[in-house]
Design brief:
The chain contains 11 helices and 13 strands. By secondary structure, the protein is of the alpha/beta class. The strands form 2 sheets. It has a 9-stranded mixed beta sheet, sandwiched between helices. Strands 3-2-6-7 form a 4-stranded mixed beta sheet. The structure holds adenosine monophosphate. Adenosine monophosphate binds next to β2 and α9.
């Protein structure tokens, strides 16, 4: 058990009911939420414990779905009222872009997270997309500085809770943001300069999510580009970013490898896990993964990246023009 705790990830974030419309179809009140996607994704690699709140309309089957993945749900509080709800519609021509139609905080509006003693000592912390005040609250309740603290957020909070978000970003190691959010949060249109500016605030690593174009991993002076796995059929991109983060953090927690190579592999595994999520609505595909399916897609992604590097002393063809 002691050893298990050394590899455990604590996550605070939304557990939600989502209504989405994509070019392929639509779903109403389907299981979603940043912490939901993250914990199922992470559960394939490391023990995950969730801190969240749900309303009395939340189905016990959905709590069981998380438990069946070995996720510790003891800190999902149930309160009277409605569960967090989000609805969005994806662009017919470009599935990378979506519009939020509605966000209802509901029980999250008065949520007071309470960590158990064991949880407050877990070595990996993921502050998933939720009100930054709650992210700070959980960070403040940690009895020891975790080995790695990562944070994800979105435009909604960049605009509404900029001050609390900025304070949280100053105390973390890894920041996840999509392209537009990176630009608007940093106030810098160029992504390389934007990432540098954010690293200047505190984080050692910035992961810029670019939808079907993959992610850019900025870490110190190094930049790594992890492609998205190319798919023929994208059904619903909701939760891809949180699933990416779950695979990423799960890998780092499971291996304990916080080297540059460890982070690069974590980004590739994150990409693989995100690619499963978008193949169906809600967590339908994500929740049914096997070790074989994950390994085989990781190999396929590796194949996609294989090329002949320049050998020592070799140079590229060059036509002399004089
Ligand atoms: P992603 O597609 O990875 O950005 O994650 C989408 C998930 O984030 C959905 O399942 C929503 O329930 C959840 N979500 C959307 N807006 C918010 C918000 N403002 N705060 C917390 N979670 C949110």
């Amino acid at each position: 058990m002691q050893e298990e705790n050394q590899r455990s990830v604590l996550v605070v974030g939304s557990v939600a009911y989502d209504s989405v419309k994509t070019p392929v179809g639509s779903r109403v009140d389907a299981l979603g939420g940043s912490a939901t996607y993250f914990s199922i994704a992470g559960s394939y690699f490391a023990p995950v414990s969730v801190v969240a709140v749900v309303g009395d309309d939340f189905s016990s089957e959905h709590v069981e779905l998380l438990s069946s993945h070995g996720v510790d749900t003891s800190s999902i509080q149930r309160q009277s009222g409605s569960t967090f709800r989000w609805s969005g519609v994806y662009n017919d021509e470009d599935v990378n872009t979506r519009e939020t139609l509605d966000t209802q905080l509901n029980v999250f509006a008065d949520f007071q997270p309470r960590l158990g003693d064991l949880q407050s000592r877990l070595p990996y912390l993921f502050l998933a997309n939720i009100e930054p005040g709650l992210q700070l609250d959980v960070l403040g309740q940690m009895a020891e500085r975790p080995r790695l603290v990562a944070l994800d957020t979105m435009n909604f909070w960049i605009e509404d809770s900029n001050r609390a978000l900025t304070e949280a970003v100053r105390s973390i190691d890894v920041l996840f943001m999509d392209e537009g959010e990176t630009r608007s949060f940093s106030g810098e249109p160029n992504l390389v300069r934007a990432a540098r500016r954010i690293m200047g605030m505190g984080p050692t690593t910035v992961v810029v999510k670019r939808g079907e174009h993959g992610v850019l991993l900025f870490r110190g002076d190094s930049v790594f580009s992890a492609p998205a796995f190319p798919l023929e059929n994208v059904v619903d991109p909701t939760g891809a970013g949180d699933s990416f983060a779950g695979g990423f953090m799960g890998y780092l927690a499971s291996t304990g490898d916080l080297s540059h190579d460890g982070f690069r592999r974590a980004a590739l595994l994150g990409s693989v896990i995100g690619s499963f999520t978008v193949e169906d609505f809600s967590v339908d595909r994500l929740a049914s993964l096997t070790r074989k399916a994950i390994d085989s897609r990781f190999r396929a992604l590796t194949d996609l990246l294989r090329f002949q590097p320049l050998k020592e002393g070799e140079s590229l063809p060059w036509r002399d023009r004089d």
